Amino acid sequence: MTHVLLAANNGTNLDPLYSKSLFWILAVLSVSAAVTMIFMRQAVHCALMLAIVMLSLALLYAMQGAPFLAFVQVIVYTGAVLMLFLFVVMLIGVTTSDSLVETIKGQRLWAALGGLGFVVLLIIGIGHASIGTAAPQTAANGTDNLTGIAQLIFTTYVFPFEATSALLITAALAAMVLTHRERTTPKPTQRELARRRVASGHVAPEPPPGVYALHNAVDMPAMLPDGSTTDRSVSTAVVQRDVDLGRDPQSDVSSDLAAGERIEAERQIEAAARGRDEQA
Amino acid sequence: MSPAGYVFLAVILFAIGGIGVLIRRNAIIIFLCVELMLNACNLAFVAFSRLHGNLDGQVVAFFVMVVAAAEVVVGLAILMAIYRARRSASVDDANLLKY
Q1: String of b and e for A241-266 (b: at least 16 CB within 10 Å)?
Q2: What CATH number should be reported for the domain whose range is A1-95?
Q3: Does A68 sit within 8 Å of B77, measured CB to CB?
Q4: What is the ipTM of this complex?
Q5: What's the pLDDT tens digit per position in A218-268?
Q6: Chain B residue with minimal CA distance to A80?
Q7: A98 min Cα distance to partner chain B (Å)
Protein backbone atom coordinates (compact mmCIF):
# COMPACT_ATOMS: atom_id res chain seq x y z
CA MET A 1 0.00 0.00 0.00
CA THR A 2 2.77 2.47 0.88
CA HIS A 3 4.67 1.59 -2.30
CA VAL A 4 1.53 2.04 -4.36
CA LEU A 5 0.67 5.41 -2.83
CA LEU A 6 4.24 6.71 -3.04
CA ALA A 7 4.54 5.72 -6.68
CA ALA A 8 1.11 7.15 -7.42
CA ASN A 9 1.86 10.46 -5.79
CA ASN A 10 5.28 10.92 -7.38
CA GLY A 11 3.91 10.04 -10.81
CA THR A 12 6.41 7.22 -11.17
CA ASN A 13 5.36 3.84 -12.44
CA LEU A 14 5.24 0.81 -10.23
CA ASP A 15 7.41 -2.20 -10.90
CA PRO A 16 5.51 -3.92 -13.79
CA LEU A 17 5.51 -7.36 -12.22
CA TYR A 18 4.33 -5.96 -8.89
CA SER A 19 1.52 -3.92 -10.46
CA LYS A 20 0.48 -6.80 -12.69
CA SER A 21 0.20 -9.33 -9.87
CA LEU A 22 -1.58 -6.79 -7.64
CA PHE A 23 -4.02 -6.03 -10.46
CA TRP A 24 -4.89 -9.69 -10.97
CA ILE A 25 -5.36 -10.32 -7.25
CA LEU A 26 -7.65 -7.30 -6.93
CA ALA A 27 -9.52 -8.10 -10.15
CA VAL A 28 -10.31 -11.66 -9.06
CA LEU A 29 -11.23 -10.45 -5.57
CA SER A 30 -13.56 -7.68 -6.75
CA VAL A 31 -15.28 -9.73 -9.46
CA SER A 32 -15.87 -12.70 -7.15
CA ALA A 33 -17.16 -10.37 -4.41
CA ALA A 34 -19.48 -8.68 -6.93
CA VAL A 35 -20.82 -12.03 -8.18
CA THR A 36 -21.34 -13.19 -4.59
CA MET A 37 -23.14 -9.92 -3.90
CA ILE A 38 -25.88 -10.48 -6.47
CA PHE A 39 -26.51 -14.01 -5.18
CA MET A 40 -26.63 -13.25 -1.44
CA ARG A 41 -30.10 -13.47 0.10
CA GLN A 42 -29.56 -11.00 2.97
CA ALA A 43 -29.10 -7.28 2.32
CA VAL A 44 -26.41 -7.02 5.03
CA HIS A 45 -24.24 -9.63 3.32
CA CYS A 46 -24.68 -7.81 0.02
CA ALA A 47 -23.51 -4.56 1.62
CA LEU A 48 -20.42 -6.26 3.08
CA MET A 49 -19.57 -7.79 -0.30
CA LEU A 50 -19.90 -4.35 -1.87
CA ALA A 51 -17.49 -3.03 0.77
CA ILE A 52 -14.90 -5.56 -0.45
CA VAL A 53 -15.42 -4.43 -4.05
CA MET A 54 -15.10 -0.77 -3.08
CA LEU A 55 -11.90 -1.28 -1.09
CA SER A 56 -10.28 -3.19 -3.95
CA LEU A 57 -11.33 -0.41 -6.32
CA ALA A 58 -9.66 2.11 -3.98
CA LEU A 59 -6.39 0.19 -4.32
CA LEU A 60 -6.83 0.02 -8.09
CA TYR A 61 -7.24 3.83 -8.16
CA ALA A 62 -4.05 4.23 -6.13
CA MET A 63 -2.22 1.93 -8.56
CA GLN A 64 -3.30 4.14 -11.45
CA GLY A 65 -1.89 7.36 -10.07
CA ALA A 66 -5.06 8.62 -8.37
CA PRO A 67 -4.28 8.67 -4.63
CA PHE A 68 -6.85 11.43 -3.99
CA LEU A 69 -9.66 9.36 -5.50
CA ALA A 70 -8.44 6.31 -3.59
CA PHE A 71 -8.84 8.11 -0.29
CA VAL A 72 -12.18 9.65 -1.32
CA GLN A 73 -13.33 6.16 -2.27
CA VAL A 74 -12.48 4.78 1.16
CA ILE A 75 -13.79 7.76 3.14
CA VAL A 76 -16.89 8.75 1.17
CA TYR A 77 -18.00 5.47 -0.40
CA THR A 78 -16.98 2.79 2.04
CA GLY A 79 -17.19 5.05 5.07
CA ALA A 80 -20.28 7.15 4.49
CA VAL A 81 -22.44 5.75 1.69
CA LEU A 82 -22.15 2.13 2.74
CA MET A 83 -22.79 3.00 6.39
CA LEU A 84 -25.94 4.82 5.26
CA PHE A 85 -26.98 1.65 3.48
CA LEU A 86 -26.37 -0.40 6.61
CA PHE A 87 -28.42 2.08 8.66
CA VAL A 88 -31.36 1.72 6.27
CA VAL A 89 -31.00 -2.07 6.26
CA MET A 90 -31.20 -2.03 10.06
CA LEU A 91 -34.21 0.34 10.01
CA ILE A 92 -36.15 -1.63 7.42
CA GLY A 93 -35.39 -4.90 9.15
CA VAL A 94 -32.57 -7.35 8.72
CA THR A 95 -35.06 -10.18 8.44
CA THR A 96 -36.72 -8.91 5.24
CA SER A 97 -35.03 -11.13 2.69
CA ASP A 98 -35.68 -11.19 -1.01
CA SER A 99 -38.76 -12.88 -2.41
CA LEU A 100 -37.91 -15.63 -4.85
CA VAL A 101 -41.14 -15.32 -6.84
CA GLU A 102 -40.62 -14.27 -10.43
CA THR A 103 -43.16 -11.64 -11.46
CA ILE A 104 -42.29 -11.86 -15.12
CA LYS A 105 -41.75 -15.41 -16.33
CA GLY A 106 -38.16 -16.19 -17.30
CA GLN A 107 -37.00 -12.69 -16.41
CA ARG A 108 -33.94 -13.80 -14.43
CA LEU A 109 -32.66 -16.06 -17.19
CA TRP A 110 -33.07 -13.37 -19.83
CA ALA A 111 -31.50 -10.73 -17.59
CA ALA A 112 -28.45 -12.92 -16.99
CA LEU A 113 -28.18 -13.73 -20.70
CA GLY A 114 -28.53 -10.04 -21.60
CA GLY A 115 -25.84 -9.09 -19.10
CA LEU A 116 -23.44 -11.72 -20.43
CA GLY A 117 -24.16 -10.58 -23.99
CA PHE A 118 -23.42 -7.01 -22.92
CA VAL A 119 -20.05 -8.08 -21.52
CA VAL A 120 -19.16 -9.96 -24.70
CA LEU A 121 -20.24 -7.02 -26.87
CA LEU A 122 -18.22 -4.47 -24.91
CA ILE A 123 -15.14 -6.68 -24.61
CA ILE A 124 -15.14 -7.33 -28.36
CA GLY A 125 -15.63 -3.62 -29.03
CA ILE A 126 -12.89 -2.49 -26.65
CA GLY A 127 -10.63 -5.33 -27.77
CA HIS A 128 -10.80 -4.06 -31.34
CA ALA A 129 -9.91 -0.53 -30.33
CA SER A 130 -6.19 -0.39 -29.78
CA ILE A 131 -5.70 0.98 -26.31
CA GLY A 132 -2.08 1.97 -26.00
CA THR A 133 0.08 2.15 -22.94
CA ALA A 134 -0.38 4.88 -20.37
CA ALA A 135 0.78 8.32 -21.45
CA PRO A 136 3.23 10.05 -19.11
CA GLN A 137 1.80 12.70 -16.82
CA THR A 138 2.22 16.10 -18.43
CA ALA A 139 3.71 19.01 -16.53
CA ALA A 140 0.48 20.98 -17.04
CA ASN A 141 -1.13 18.82 -14.36
CA GLY A 142 0.74 20.43 -11.50
CA THR A 143 3.47 19.07 -9.31
CA ASP A 144 1.47 16.15 -7.94
CA ASN A 145 -1.95 14.56 -8.13
CA LEU A 146 -3.61 16.67 -5.45
CA THR A 147 -2.53 20.09 -6.72
CA GLY A 148 -3.34 19.01 -10.29
CA ILE A 149 -6.90 18.05 -9.33
CA ALA A 150 -7.30 21.24 -7.29
CA GLN A 151 -6.17 23.35 -10.26
CA LEU A 152 -8.65 21.63 -12.57
CA ILE A 153 -11.58 21.82 -10.12
CA PHE A 154 -11.10 25.52 -9.40
CA THR A 155 -10.42 26.62 -12.99
CA THR A 156 -11.91 24.48 -15.76
CA TYR A 157 -14.57 22.74 -13.70
CA VAL A 158 -15.48 25.52 -11.30
CA PHE A 159 -19.11 25.81 -12.47
CA PRO A 160 -19.85 22.07 -12.29
CA PHE A 161 -18.20 22.13 -8.88
CA GLU A 162 -20.54 24.92 -7.71
CA ALA A 163 -23.47 23.02 -9.20
CA THR A 164 -22.60 19.94 -7.16
CA SER A 165 -22.75 22.03 -3.99
CA ALA A 166 -26.29 23.08 -4.93
CA LEU A 167 -27.06 19.44 -5.66
CA LEU A 168 -25.82 18.32 -2.25
CA ILE A 169 -27.91 20.95 -0.43
CA THR A 170 -30.97 19.93 -2.46
CA ALA A 171 -30.34 16.28 -1.64
CA ALA A 172 -30.04 17.02 2.08
CA LEU A 173 -33.31 18.99 2.00
CA ALA A 174 -35.00 16.25 -0.02
CA ALA A 175 -33.96 13.62 2.51
CA MET A 176 -35.41 15.71 5.33
CA VAL A 177 -38.67 16.36 3.46
CA LEU A 178 -39.11 12.74 2.37
CA THR A 179 -38.47 11.22 5.77
CA HIS A 180 -40.55 13.81 7.62
CA ARG A 181 -43.73 12.30 9.01
CA GLU A 182 -46.82 14.40 9.59
CA ARG A 183 -48.22 13.89 13.08
CA THR A 184 -51.78 12.58 12.75
CA THR A 185 -52.56 12.59 16.47
CA PRO A 186 -51.69 15.36 18.93
CA LYS A 187 -48.47 14.87 20.85
CA PRO A 188 -49.20 13.32 24.28
CA THR A 189 -48.43 15.66 27.14
CA GLN A 190 -46.48 14.66 30.23
CA ARG A 191 -49.71 14.48 32.25
CA GLU A 192 -51.31 12.12 29.72
CA LEU A 193 -48.21 9.93 29.67
CA ALA A 194 -48.18 9.66 33.46
CA ARG A 195 -51.89 8.84 33.54
CA ARG A 196 -51.47 6.18 30.87
CA ARG A 197 -48.60 4.59 32.78
CA VAL A 198 -50.56 4.36 36.03
CA ALA A 199 -53.58 2.97 34.18
CA SER A 200 -51.46 0.29 32.49
CA GLY A 201 -50.61 -1.31 35.82
CA HIS A 202 -46.83 -1.11 35.35
CA VAL A 203 -45.80 2.11 37.02
CA ALA A 204 -42.08 1.47 37.08
CA PRO A 205 -40.20 1.02 33.80
CA GLU A 206 -40.09 -2.56 32.65
CA PRO A 207 -36.89 -4.48 33.45
CA PRO A 208 -34.47 -5.34 30.66
CA PRO A 209 -34.19 -8.95 29.41
CA GLY A 210 -32.03 -11.46 31.21
CA VAL A 211 -32.79 -10.61 34.83
CA TYR A 212 -34.69 -13.84 35.18
CA ALA A 213 -34.04 -15.68 38.43
CA LEU A 214 -32.03 -18.64 37.10
CA HIS A 215 -30.63 -17.21 33.84
CA ASN A 216 -29.11 -14.00 32.65
CA ALA A 217 -29.13 -14.58 28.87
CA VAL A 218 -30.75 -12.05 26.54
CA ASP A 219 -33.28 -14.58 25.27
CA MET A 220 -34.74 -14.97 28.77
CA PRO A 221 -37.68 -12.65 29.40
CA ALA A 222 -37.59 -10.34 32.37
CA MET A 223 -39.60 -11.15 35.47
CA LEU A 224 -42.09 -8.57 36.65
CA PRO A 225 -42.64 -7.83 40.37
CA ASP A 226 -45.81 -9.97 40.39
CA GLY A 227 -43.86 -13.06 39.31
CA SER A 228 -45.05 -13.16 35.70
CA THR A 229 -42.69 -12.78 32.77
CA THR A 230 -42.92 -10.18 30.03
CA ASP A 231 -42.26 -11.22 26.44
CA ARG A 232 -41.85 -7.61 25.43
CA SER A 233 -38.44 -7.49 27.10
CA VAL A 234 -36.97 -9.94 24.56
CA SER A 235 -36.07 -8.71 21.10
CA THR A 236 -38.27 -10.22 18.38
CA ALA A 237 -35.12 -11.05 16.42
CA VAL A 238 -33.92 -13.33 19.23
CA VAL A 239 -37.26 -15.11 19.40
CA GLN A 240 -37.30 -15.41 15.61
CA ARG A 241 -33.84 -16.99 15.73
CA ASP A 242 -35.06 -19.60 18.22
CA VAL A 243 -37.97 -20.37 15.91
CA ASP A 244 -35.64 -20.58 12.90
CA LEU A 245 -33.37 -23.02 14.71
CA GLY A 246 -36.37 -25.15 15.63
CA ARG A 247 -36.18 -24.42 19.35
CA ASP A 248 -39.07 -23.54 21.59
CA PRO A 249 -38.28 -20.01 22.81
CA GLN A 250 -40.39 -20.55 25.94
CA SER A 251 -39.07 -24.00 26.92
CA ASP A 252 -36.43 -22.75 29.36
CA VAL A 253 -38.86 -20.23 30.79
CA SER A 254 -41.56 -22.76 31.63
CA SER A 255 -39.08 -25.25 33.10
CA ASP A 256 -37.51 -22.45 35.14
CA LEU A 257 -40.89 -21.29 36.38
CA ALA A 258 -41.66 -24.87 37.44
CA ALA A 259 -38.27 -25.13 39.18
CA GLY A 260 -38.92 -21.82 40.93
CA GLU A 261 -42.28 -23.05 42.20
CA ARG A 262 -40.69 -26.28 43.45
CA ILE A 263 -37.97 -24.36 45.29
CA GLU A 264 -40.59 -22.07 46.82
CA ALA A 265 -42.67 -25.06 47.95
CA GLU A 266 -39.62 -26.72 49.54
CA ARG A 267 -38.76 -23.47 51.28
CA GLN A 268 -42.26 -23.25 52.73
CA ILE A 269 -42.08 -26.84 53.93
CA GLU A 270 -38.73 -26.11 55.56
CA ALA A 271 -40.07 -22.94 57.15
CA ALA A 272 -43.07 -24.83 58.47
CA ALA A 273 -40.79 -27.57 59.87
CA ARG A 274 -38.55 -24.96 61.48
CA GLY A 275 -41.60 -23.27 63.00
CA ARG A 276 -42.69 -26.62 64.45
CA ASP A 277 -39.21 -27.18 65.93
CA GLU A 278 -39.23 -23.76 67.52
CA GLN A 279 -42.68 -24.32 69.02
CA ALA A 280 -41.70 -27.71 70.45
CA MET B 1 -0.57 -3.19 -16.25
CA SER B 2 -1.89 -1.38 -19.32
CA PRO B 3 -5.12 0.66 -18.98
CA ALA B 4 -6.98 -1.88 -21.16
CA GLY B 5 -7.02 -4.38 -18.31
CA TYR B 6 -8.66 -1.85 -16.01
CA VAL B 7 -11.27 -1.02 -18.66
CA PHE B 8 -12.11 -4.72 -19.08
CA LEU B 9 -12.45 -5.09 -15.30
CA ALA B 10 -14.75 -2.04 -15.27
CA VAL B 11 -16.89 -3.59 -18.03
CA ILE B 12 -17.26 -6.85 -16.11
CA LEU B 13 -18.15 -5.10 -12.85
CA PHE B 14 -20.65 -2.86 -14.67
CA ALA B 15 -22.37 -5.86 -16.24
CA ILE B 16 -22.52 -7.71 -12.90
CA GLY B 17 -24.16 -4.63 -11.38
CA GLY B 18 -26.62 -4.47 -14.27
CA ILE B 19 -27.55 -8.14 -13.91
CA GLY B 20 -28.04 -7.57 -10.17
CA VAL B 21 -30.41 -4.65 -10.82
CA LEU B 22 -32.45 -6.81 -13.18
CA ILE B 23 -32.70 -10.02 -11.16
CA ARG B 24 -33.08 -8.79 -7.58
CA ARG B 25 -36.42 -7.70 -6.08
CA ASN B 26 -35.27 -6.03 -2.85
CA ALA B 27 -34.95 -2.28 -3.37
CA ILE B 28 -31.90 -1.94 -1.09
CA ILE B 29 -29.99 -4.59 -3.02
CA ILE B 30 -30.97 -2.93 -6.29
CA PHE B 31 -29.47 0.29 -4.93
CA LEU B 32 -26.28 -1.53 -3.96
CA CYS B 33 -26.02 -2.88 -7.50
CA VAL B 34 -26.48 0.63 -8.92
CA GLU B 35 -23.60 1.74 -6.68
CA LEU B 36 -21.49 -1.08 -8.11
CA MET B 37 -22.26 0.16 -11.65
CA LEU B 38 -21.27 3.74 -10.71
CA ASN B 39 -18.02 2.46 -9.19
CA ALA B 40 -17.26 0.52 -12.36
CA CYS B 41 -17.74 3.73 -14.37
CA ASN B 42 -15.32 5.51 -12.04
CA LEU B 43 -12.73 2.82 -12.61
CA ALA B 44 -13.06 3.29 -16.38
CA PHE B 45 -12.77 7.08 -15.97
CA VAL B 46 -9.57 6.73 -13.95
CA ALA B 47 -8.14 4.24 -16.47
CA PHE B 48 -8.86 6.61 -19.36
CA SER B 49 -7.40 9.48 -17.35
CA ARG B 50 -4.14 7.56 -17.06
CA LEU B 51 -4.33 6.59 -20.73
CA HIS B 52 -4.47 10.23 -21.81
CA GLY B 53 -1.99 11.44 -19.25
CA ASN B 54 -4.20 14.20 -17.83
CA LEU B 55 -6.36 14.50 -14.75
CA ASP B 56 -9.74 15.37 -16.32
CA GLY B 57 -10.95 11.80 -15.98
CA GLN B 58 -10.17 11.81 -12.27
CA VAL B 59 -12.09 15.06 -11.80
CA VAL B 60 -15.10 13.56 -13.61
CA ALA B 61 -14.86 10.46 -11.40
CA PHE B 62 -14.87 12.77 -8.39
CA PHE B 63 -18.06 14.44 -9.65
CA VAL B 64 -19.62 11.01 -10.21
CA MET B 65 -18.90 10.21 -6.57
CA VAL B 66 -20.62 13.41 -5.41
CA VAL B 67 -23.68 12.75 -7.57
CA ALA B 68 -23.79 9.13 -6.37
CA ALA B 69 -23.77 10.31 -2.74
CA ALA B 70 -26.69 12.67 -3.43
CA GLU B 71 -28.54 9.91 -5.29
CA VAL B 72 -28.10 7.49 -2.41
CA VAL B 73 -29.44 10.00 0.11
CA VAL B 74 -32.60 10.75 -1.89
CA GLY B 75 -33.09 7.15 -2.97
CA LEU B 76 -32.85 5.75 0.53
CA ALA B 77 -35.21 8.44 1.82
CA ILE B 78 -37.78 7.45 -0.82
CA LEU B 79 -37.24 3.82 0.14
CA MET B 80 -37.91 4.63 3.80
CA ALA B 81 -41.11 6.50 2.85
CA ILE B 82 -42.32 3.56 0.74
CA TYR B 83 -41.44 1.12 3.50
CA ARG B 84 -43.44 3.14 6.02
CA ALA B 85 -46.46 3.16 3.75
CA ARG B 86 -46.35 -0.43 2.44
CA ARG B 87 -44.30 -2.31 5.10
CA SER B 88 -42.19 -3.86 2.36
CA ALA B 89 -38.91 -3.13 0.59
CA SER B 90 -39.74 -5.26 -2.43
CA VAL B 91 -40.07 -3.43 -5.73
CA ASP B 92 -42.97 -5.70 -6.70
CA ASP B 93 -45.14 -4.32 -3.91
CA ALA B 94 -44.89 -0.69 -5.04
CA ASN B 95 -47.27 -1.15 -7.96
CA LEU B 96 -50.04 1.39 -7.33
CA LEU B 97 -49.19 3.42 -10.44
CA LYS B 98 -49.88 0.34 -12.56
CA TYR B 99 -53.65 0.51 -12.42
Answers
A1: ebeeeeeebeebbeebbeeeeeeeee
A2: 1.20.120.1200
A3: no
A4: 0.92
A5: 777 777 767 677 777 777 777 777 777 877 766 677 777 777 788 888 888
A6: B69
A7: 6
